[in-house]
From TrEMBL:
Top-level taxonomic group: Bacteria
Additional record remark: The active site is a redox-active disulfide bond.
Cofactor note: Binds 1 FAD per subunit.
Record organism: Metallibacterium scheffleri
Keyword NAD set for record: yes
Name of the protein this chain belongs to: Dihydrolipoyl dehydrogenase
Taxonomic lineage from the root: Bacteria, Pseudomonadati, Pseudomonadota, Gammaproteobacteria, Lysobacterales
Shown residues within the full chain: 123 to 589 of 594
One GO process term, biological-process aspect: 2-oxoglutarate metabolic process
Amino acid sequence: RTPDMECALLVLGAGPGGYTAAFRAADLGLDVVLVERYASLGGVCLNVGCIPSKALLHTAEVIAEAEAMAAHGVSFGTPRLDLDKLRAFKDGVVGKLTGGLAGMAKQRKVRVLQGVGMFVAPHELDVQTDAGVKRVRFAQAIIAAGSQALKLPGFPWDDARVMDSTDALALADMPKSLLVVGGGIIGLEMACVYAALGSAVTVVELAEQLMPGCDADLVKPLQQRLGKRLAGIHLQTKVARATAQKDGIHVVFEGASKPARDVFDRVLVAVGRVPNGKRIGAEAAGIAVDARGYIAVDAQMRSNVPHIFAIGDIVGNPMLAHKATHEAKLAAEVAAGEKREWLARVIPSVAYTDPEIAWVGVSEREAKEKGLAIEVARFPWAASGRALGMDRSEGFSKLIFDAQTRRVVGGGIVGVHAGDLIAEVALAIEMGAEAADIGHTIHPHPTLSETVAMAAEIMDGSITDLI
Ligand code: FAD
């Protein structure tokens, strides 16, 4: 059949990877068609990920801070929750951003085609739209079809009380009791939100620590604080079975410690995400997809089919929006004929929990596993005037150095605003900075950013005594 549309570049999926690639390519002069199954652009991140979760976490933080003010002699009383208003605020934030994207697409003359896309040939994609199937012929393509929540078997998924992160962000109601299965970033962020809004939240995690993969020392202050705010945290524990009954979701646990309760009003399953590689007809275009659904790419984001690129969650971990956008610009520039390749050394990770945990580059865990010679400097926030003034001195900042070159190779921060503070450490690593470079940079006083400089000064030997 003859194609309904033709373009120089087809982008499949309009998440942070897809819209960034489409816009960059259009700015570089390519004629772009952007295919997205949902009416709203922005993908998981803007619609059901980063942005709505952070809007709700802000509310959770304010509630927690207001409670803490009682110890400073100021009481606000018990918060009264209007869930409809809170939901409307969150949806408003999402709407502003996704609406902005639609305008930006229009401005750049990116043609947006709404429907589910499936490759049918190396240069053709069929899109199932409301007005029937449209065939798009393209010279080059960028796949940015993202990922979706892993629906762990053994849960009654047909019952609305069993939720994935998208359902949890919808805030249908405020359950009296919530079980969060999975103590990773997404599970713990949602645990913070629901606990602040009044749910009794229990977390179960299979691994021996929360936030598996992250250095244990960074997790400790979070675990201590959550221990006080949640109904229970159970490590090395899993759900053996869950059944939907009238009075709630009945759960049978297995493992090191068992939660006090075994019937929950709602259950959030947050045990990871699976890439959408197996759902796009990749084989028809000859694109290699591995058993888990990932598409392998080279340093220019090209798949095994040279005119088809892939970016974002669908090419692998870490599944983070800022990784997707970085890859998107690269793929778009290469598609437009520029000679570029992946040059970033590190990708920061942040858990926007309370307190936040942020880390970048080599971790102590990784150094140990790989036998790397490192040195570590830690600055406790108990010695930061700003942290004390905020009554949040539980955090610390640490920098990790290569023992030979003395350069910063990693860092981790736990504490309020850790996510904002980690950017400096990422910059230091990218710039090949040594401890003295950070230590000699004048940081404003009194700020939390000084804690990073202090860690550098400890390493540099300019501070030996921490007050
Ligand atoms: P996606 O955002 O998944 O976009 C893919 C798009 O492709 C979707 O819109 C989908 O509808 C579309 N699509 C897929 N298949 C087809 C098809 N066949 N036809 C048409 N369209 C299709 N990351 C961070 O960096 N910071 C955070 O704070 C953060 N918080 C998160 C919180 C939650 C609850 C979740 C779930 C994720 C969070 N993430 C966060 C991860 C982040 O959302 C993803 O890494 C990011 O969205 C990946 O971008 P992407 O462009 O690869 O794919």
